[in-house]
Specification:
The chain folds into two domains: 101 residues, Rna Polymerase Sigma Factor, Chain: A, CATH 1.10.1740.10; 91 residues, Orthogonal Bundle (Arc Repressor Mutant, subunit A), CATH 1.10.10. The chain has nine helices and no strands. The longest helix is centred in the first third of the chain and has 24 residues.
């Protein structure tokens, strides 16, 4: 599968052209690039916000996106994505960091962040974790946040695979096509990632 998203958005060559212009000090290139990817980035922010119910109750997609774009702009000064897929992955990572920070902010003693769920993954699970549900146990919220932080600590390919499923809402099969890896490799990386996340959450395989 091509790294260019559907519906005719920019490809890697055009992305690199914008990045080169931005590095050279052409501020208009940043605006052109963000306008070109606006639809995809907004949709990504909306999907990811649904995974962070402690934030969704208090923040709108546009606000999360704006703050994540500021993080993305800083990240692009140090990292040059080698593909559109890499650019969108970097954007997703900045959104995840913004959402984790906001979730921690809202989980105060008054329970603003109490809307949560813990993902108890099964080794053979083939779809995204279930949608979060309401609750009031602050210990579960800590575990829920720990899950999202654990995703960031995974090895690169496992992290990208879990990110595509968890944040982009893909199936394992779709994620494997995007990553250009076989079904067997997808299953191996998926199981390894779940074992690491389960260990981080203090859960046994059984």
């Amino acid at each position: 599968m091509s790294d260019t998203p559907p519906s005719g958005p920019p490809g890697t060559t055009q992305l690199h052209g914008w990045l080169d212009r931005i590095k050279a000090g052409d501020l208009s290139a940043r605006e052109e690039m963000l306008r070109a990817f606006c639809g995809q980035l907004e949709a990504l922010a909306h999907r990811m916000l649904r995974r962070f119910p402690a934030v969704a109750r208090w923040e709108q997609t546009g606000d999360v996106l704006q703050n994540a774009l500021l993080r993305l702009e800083r990240a692009l000064r140090a990292v040059r994505p080698d593909s559109v897929r890499g650019f969108l992955g970097l954007a997703a990572e900045q959104m995840r960091r913004e959402l984790v920070d906001l979730a921690r902010h809202y989980r105060g003693p008054l329970g603003l962040g109490a809307n949560h769920a813990t993902w108890r993954a099964e080794a053979g699970a083939c779809g995204p974790p279930p949608e979060p549900a309401d609750g009031s146990d602050p210990e579960d919220l800590v575990r829920w946040l720990d899950l999202h932080e654990g995703v960031a600590s995974l090895p690169a390919q496992e992290r990208e695979l879990v990110g595509l499923v968890l944040y982009h809402g893909m199936t394992q099969e779709q994620a494997g096509e995007v990553l250009g890896i076989s079904e067997r490799t997808v299953q191996r990386h998926w199981k390894a990632a779940l074992l690491k996340l389960r260990s981080r959450l203090g859960e046994s395989e059984g």
